[in-house]
Design brief:
By secondary structure, the chain is mainly alpha-helical. It folds into two domains: 8-165; 170-277 and 287-291, no CATH class. The chain is 77% helix and 1% strand. It has a two-stranded antiparallel sheet with strand order 1-2. It is elongated, with a radius of gyration of 19 Å.
């Protein structure tokens, strides 16, 4: 379980972040940049003295997450926006790249979800915002956006399981955030969907949830959100199934069952989506798995 350490260094770091965020938000009313700048600055200074290796960096990131959520909650700010700023700020402040950056993303998202639960906030909103932050920050630190999505989704899924949130409910909200965030930054929705599914598989494995049923719910949410943002439904449906195949192989699950279940859900949702008007435009697509 997530434990708060009682040492003075941790307390000082939490209070420093919280006070900085509260002061800036009260002064400007802006949350995203306030959190990003505060987190980046505080972490940069903290890691100069503690060293950004192993446990020291992980603990610092967890402390910062507490300060972010506590400070934002204190002024009634949006925890989703704060979480997005947190992930961006952490990667800028730690200057981690490659696999280290992916690990840091997972730690950040997990800590944010835990702290949100402790203050009675909306866990799903926090997880969604954190995933959007990972997408935005990926390019800045030289990591693949898809890998960043997988790391963030897996971290969110692990934490939601530990705080008692339904895996299927959490996954649907989280992957919807993946599509929304990817759309906002002009990323590839198909790739985002595939990596979101991989993240769900990895996260559900760690918390012992039913991976296949959870991924099925995720597929439905991915298609619905793609329709909402006017994305290519056929591409997202196909990539969602590919993600299910890769995830099933990775976890040693029955690949045919995973592919069949997700394909069925995706096809049904695409059919539903194209029977009406999407964003004011009548959309017509071919069956999602045919050339």
């Amino acid at each position: 379980m997530h434990q708060q350490r009682g040492n003075s260094r941790a307390t000082n770091l939490i209070e420093s972040v919280k006070d900085g965020i509260v002061g800036t938000i009260k002064g400007t009313g802006e949350i995203l940049n306030a959190v990003t700048d505060t987190v980046s600055s505080v972490l940069t200074n903290a890691l100069k003295s503690t060293g950004k290796v192993g446990t020291a960096a992980t603990e610092a990131v967890s402390d910062v997450a507490r300060g972010v959520i506590q400070g934002t909650s204190q002024v009634g700010g949006d925890l989703g926006s704060a979480s997005k700023g947190m992930v961006v700020g952490v990667l800028r402040g730690t200057k981690e790249v490659g696999n280290e950056a992916l690990s840091t993303i997972g730690t950040s998202v997990s800590s944010l979800v835990h702290e949100t639960a402790s203050v009675g906030g909306n866990v799903a909103s926090t997880a969604k915002g954190a995933v959007e932050g990972a997408i935005q920050a990926a390019k800045d630190v030289g990591v693949n956006a898809g890998d960043a999505v997988s790391a963030a989704v897996a971290g969110a899924m692990r934490a939601t399981g530990e705080v008692g949130t339904s895996a299927t409910v959490a996954a649907s909200s989280i992957v919807s955030g993946v599509i929304r965030g990817t759309s906002q930054v002009g990323g590839e929705l198909g790739s985002a969907a595939k990596h979101a599914v991989l993240g769900v598989f990895r996260g559900t494995k760690d918390i012992g949830a039913g991976a296949l049923s959870t991924v099925g719910e995720s597929a439905e949410a991915l298609i619905k959100e793609t329709a909402a943002v006017g994305g290519n439904l056929a591409v997202v449906a196909k990539q969602t199934v590919e993600g299910a195949i890769e995830g099933a192989k990775e976890l040693g699950l029955d690949v045919a069952t995973a592919a069949g279940n997700v394909s069925k859900v995706a096809t049904e949702e695409v059919t539903k989506a194209v029977t009406g008007i999407i964003s004011g435009v009548k959309v017509v697509v071919k069956a999602p798995f045919k050339d």
